[in-house]
């Protein structure tokens, strides 16, 4: 007997969509959705609905072959990000996976135009709205380097210079110096941005959002949770990376609401910097990441060797101090 209860009409099924971020020589494969379909005319990553009985990886390999003629195997795929999005007329779960070093020539087998584009060339407004975090995930590195707590700016700058010339030199650096008042912090950050730039790295300032405007060389701002919780909307312009420190599920939801471009989540494992705090553990970390519509860096108790594990749990990568700052 059909369910005629009024609430039945309100249950909208979410469409599970397998999405492929296919990379070759640093470029990503992008197609244009045909006119007349959902979100038609916009750009997209190859992919499509997961059919009954298929795993998401199988669905993705099938869709990629149908749409582009490329062969991608489930073993090549690594989870990138899951995004739940309500378009009003349709709810989707974009289950995005990344494949690096894809071989072969791609062709638009369904008549769609396709091209390999540099991640920096992707503009949010050319894609369906749900794709924003995928584009962020594609541009962000897999390591986020956080400086130790800098108290003496002169010594801190020297240490930064040294750390950046080390083997584990990371591309994105968060300048953490909570003990400094605002004017000395800004002076330090102006100089640190130059040091990073010379080393081919980019600097994210740490603290309250207003610091970003005072450090023209910075590419973003990272909000500690006690700052993030004071805001109800994105406190910095779109051109800035916005990062938020999160420790649990409600904080993740808040960071998403702010339009964070990435979050750190932890501590994942026990860490000497927070004695007595147990850590989320990999299983809980993975659950939280699976429901986060924002790239997540695992933080706390992690070494460089944990990066593959964090990524296998769907994280963007790892963040931390000890792996690059000694
Ligand atoms: N393939 C793909 N779909 C996306 C992206 N972003 C996004 O919001 N979607 C949405 O995900 C849904 C999946 O769409 P699809 O039409 O490609 O799936 P499909 O090939 O199985 O479709 P069909 O069998 O109905 O023709 C659409 O509602 C689409 O708007 C994206 O980057 N790639």
UniProtKB/TrEMBL annotation:
8-oxo-dGTP binds at residues 33, 38, 44-47, 131. It is an enzyme of class 3 (hydrolase). Keywords: DNA damage, DNA repair, DNA replication, Hydrolase, Magnesium, Metal-binding, Mutator protein. It catalyses: 8-oxo-GTP + H2O = 8-oxo-GMP + diphosphate + H(+); 8-oxo-dGTP + H2O = 8-oxo-dGMP + diphosphate + H(+). Its cofactor is Mg(2+). GO terms for molecular function: 8-oxo-7,8-dihydrodeoxyguanosine triphosphate pyrophosphatase activity; 8-oxo-7,8-dihydroguanosine triphosphate pyrophosphatase activity; 8-oxo-dGDP phosphatase activity; 8-oxo-GDP phosphatase activity; metal ion binding. PROSITE patterns: NUDIX (PS51462), NUDIX_BOX (PS00893). The keyword DNA repair applies. CDD domains: NUDIX_MutT_NudA_like (cd03425), TMP_TenI (cd00564). One of its GO terms (biological process) is DNA replication. NCBIfam families: mutt (TIGR00586), PRK08999.1 (NF006530). This is 8-oxo-dGTP diphosphatase. It comes from Marinobacter fuscus.
């Amino acid at each position: 007997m059909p369910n005629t209860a009024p609430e039945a009409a309100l249950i909208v099924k979410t469409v599970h969509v397998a999405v492929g971020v296919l990379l070759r020589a640093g470029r990503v494969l992008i197609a244009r959705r045909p006119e007349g379909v959902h979100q038609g005319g916009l750009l997209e990553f190859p992919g499509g609905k997961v059919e009954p009985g298929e795993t998401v990886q199988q669905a993705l390999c099938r869709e990629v072959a149908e749409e582009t003629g490329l062969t991608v195997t489930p073993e090549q795929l690594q989870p990138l990000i899951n995004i739940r999005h309500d378009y009003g007329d349709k709810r989707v779960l974009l289950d995005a996976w990344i494949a690096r070093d894809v071989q072969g020539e791609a062709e638009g087998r369904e008549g769609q135009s396709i091209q390999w584009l540099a991640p920096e060339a992707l503009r949010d407004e050319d894609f369906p709205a749900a794709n924003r975090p995928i584009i962020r995930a594609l541009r962000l590195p897999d390591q986020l380097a956080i400086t130790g707590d800098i108290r003496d700016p002169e010594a801190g700058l020297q240490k930064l210079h040294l750390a950046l010339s080390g083997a584990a030199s990371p591309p994105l650096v968060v300048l953490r110096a909570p003990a400094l008042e605002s004017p000395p912090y800004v002076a330090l950050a102006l100089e640190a941005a130059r040091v990073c730039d010379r080393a081919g790295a980019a600097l994210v300032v740490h603290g309250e959002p207003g610091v970003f405007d005072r450090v023209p060389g910075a590419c973003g701002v990272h909000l500690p949770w006690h700052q993030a919780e004071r805001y109800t909307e994105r406190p910095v312009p779109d051109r800035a990376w916005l990062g938020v420190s999160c420790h649990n599920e409600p904080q993740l939801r808040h960071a998403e609401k702010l339009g964070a471009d990435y979050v750190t989540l932890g501590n994942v494992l026990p860490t000497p910097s927070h004695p007595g705090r147990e850590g989320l553990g990999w299983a809980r970390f993975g659950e939280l990441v699976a429901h986060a519509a924002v790239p997540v860096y695992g933080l706390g108790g992690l070494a460089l060797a944990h990066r593959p594990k964090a990524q296998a749990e769907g994280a963007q990568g790892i963040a931390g101090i000890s792996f690059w700052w000694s």
